User: What shape does this take?
Amino acid sequence: MPPTQPIHLRPTAPLAERVLLPGDPGRALALAQELIDEPKMFNHHRGLWGYTGAAKHDGRAVSIQSTGMGGPSAAIVLEELIALGARRAVRVGTCGALHPQLRLGDLVLARESLAADGVGRRLGGERVPADVTLTDALRAAAQPEQDGTIATTDLFYEPRAPRPEASWRQEHALAVEMEAAALFAVGALRGAAVGCLLTVSDVFPEQGSRQRIDDEALLISAVRMGAAAIAAMP
Assistant: This one.
């Protein structure tokens, strides 16, 4: 059953019908400072910082709400946002590259997710699609470096061998992250349009160790994603 009132979010300002969904609370604050005129805190309960106000892009209301890490947290946040009136939402998050041509800071547009996580698979099945109309608008606004299938997993640190990346690549997944499948599934179940833009924060060279994006480059990419998401949700 959908919630009749929020339990985990405690709004202190109005919620917009269009919402950006970063995972990291700190990134939610940074995006609010860059993309909203005079942002007001929407939520701080449970450390899930959220902000709302007029977008600098078009002067219309937009909210930016962090989801925390992983599908269970993201699904709870989106359920409660939809109950409060959200109608369109875009995950603006990070991912690890699976496609060999992706570089740190590149943008990936997710059209569907291979649900290798518990929530996405439980609610949406093995492959969970993003909203088609919103995704097409995101492509036009963001002009991402890659566009297609991604994978969603519950594990950031995978201790087992062999690791699952090879099977995801066989399914043509461009990148892997931790929230999109759950968000797509909740949006479809509750009648809200949900899309996903990701910036490559980690690459895994065949020769050498994992490489991680620096904070300044990540913020630049996050702002690029956020501005595109706002433009795609007029």
Observations:
- The longest strand covers residues 193-203.
- The CA atoms of residues 46 and 111 lie 30 Å apart.
- The chain has one domain: 18-232.
- The first helix runs from residue 25 to 35.
